[in-house]
Amino acid sequence: MNGVKIMKRILHYFVTVVEQGTYTKAAKVLHISQPSLSAAIKKLENYYGLTLIDRTTREMKLTQEGRVLYEEAKNLLTHFNHITEEMHRLKTAGPLELHIGLIESAKFWIPNIIAKFKEDYPNIFIKLLEILSLEVVEQSLFNFDIHFVITSQFIDHPDILTYPIYEEKLVAVIPTTHPLHKKEKIVINDLVDEPLIICKEGFQTREDTLNFFRKSGVKPNIQFEIERFETACFLVENNLGITLVPENYVIFDKKRDYHIRQIAHQPITRIVYIAYVKNRYLPPLVQDFIKLVKEVE
Questions:
Q1: CA distances from 214 to 103, 210, 217, 239 (A)
Q2: How far, CA to CA in Å, does 264 sit from each of 186, 238, 240?
Q3: How many domains does the chain have?
Q4: Beta carbons of 239 and 175 less than 8 angstroms apart
Q5: Which pLDDT score is estimated for 90?
Q6: At residue 93, does pLDDT exceed 60?
Q7: Are 278 and 150 in a shared domain?
Q8: What is the pLDDT of residue 233?
Q9: Which span out of 1-10, 190-199, 259-268 was modeled with the highest average pLDDT?
Q10: Which of 6, 15, 31, 209 has the fewest other C-beta atoms within 10 Å?
Q11: Which pLDDT tens digit goes with each residue over 11-51?
Q12: In 5-159, beta strands by DSSP E
């Protein structure tokens, strides 16, 4: 155990030196002397038999090996600290909280899963975090903000496992006074020149919508970019345009003041996934929830 603590401390020193940019600043942050810090970094280099910091230049510069170690050390330290906190929590407070990342359209699907889970864990505290863009999804997973995420984006990352759980389709949301509400279903040509409300860059719904237009050879008339479906639907209700959103988001909304229309001939469908970091400690109750999600049809 002492060896693990020593290595953790030295890696912490190394990461701090890199992030502070100089030994002097790092030593102040770490509350140790600069000679002691330099000796620790040298010891780390001797241990690996590699030069981690290029000392031939006036400014501190990492070698290629140093950059690799820096990234891996950050992940390792984050993981180590998380495990320590989890074990302390288990010892002092019992079962963990469950933190779930969630796309907007899943908010009508997840309650049934939670209700079933609560039968086995009636006192568990569950925190639901709406996480929409791919960048934030990955960041939240690696920062331990969430245990897993329900997302419409397939995450192509070697350290993240992405498992399909269900399929959903996008539908058109149109104002109550729009002539299209008289049609049972609409086609792509119905949307030519119509003011379109679309998600901003980094959101899967945006990609799904643009691919729909692209495949049909139709140029969308984008008038608004938004982050949340709630905003898009509000704009539709105020006769400012048309939007495409997951059916699961709008079909259960009893207070809606807009019309929902299916897309004919070229329906837009997509997969919703559960995603979590591989090779990471997940408490039994988290594993049980993931198993339940995978089993539900």
A1: 25, 6, 5, 25
A2: 6, 25, 23
A3: 3
A4: yes
A5: 63
A6: no
A7: yes
A8: 93
A9: 190-199
A10: 31
A11: 899 999 989 988 889 899 999 998 898 899 899 889 899 88
A12: 53-54, 61-62, 98-102, 126-130, 148-151
99 and 76 housed in the same domain? no
- Whether residues 37 and 68 share a domain: the answer is yes
> Are both 46 and 177 inside the same structural domain?
no
CATH number at residue 210: 3.40.190.290
**pLDDT computed for residue 114 by the predictor:** 94
Q: Which structural domain, as residue segments, surrounds residue 16? A: 2-89
Whether residue 181 is predicted with pLDDT greater than 90 in this model: the reply is: no
Of 70, 89, 108, which residue constitutes the final position of a domain? Answer: 89
At 195 the pLDDT is 96
Residue 206's DSSP bridge partners are none
What tokens were used for 285?
């109750």
Is residue 141 within 8 Å of residue 101, measured between CB atoms?
Answer: yes
Name the residue type at position 53.
I
Are both 65 and 77 inside the same structural domain? yes
How many Å apart are CA 243 and CA 266, to the nearest integer? 16
Residue 257's SS3 state is coil
pLDDT value at 94 more than 60? no
160 and 192 share one domain: no
* Contacts of 160 by beta carbon, 8 Å cutoff, 6+ apart: 138, 141, 275, 276, 277, 278
Considering the domain architecture, whether residues 285 and 143 belong to the same structural domain is answered as yes
More confident residue, 221 or 7: 221
What single string gives the DSSP state of each residue in 217-252? T---EEEEEES-HHHHHHHHHTTS-EEEEEHHHHTT
Give yes or no: residues 154 and 277 share one domain.
yes
Backbone angles phi, psi at 217, to 5 degrees: 70, 25
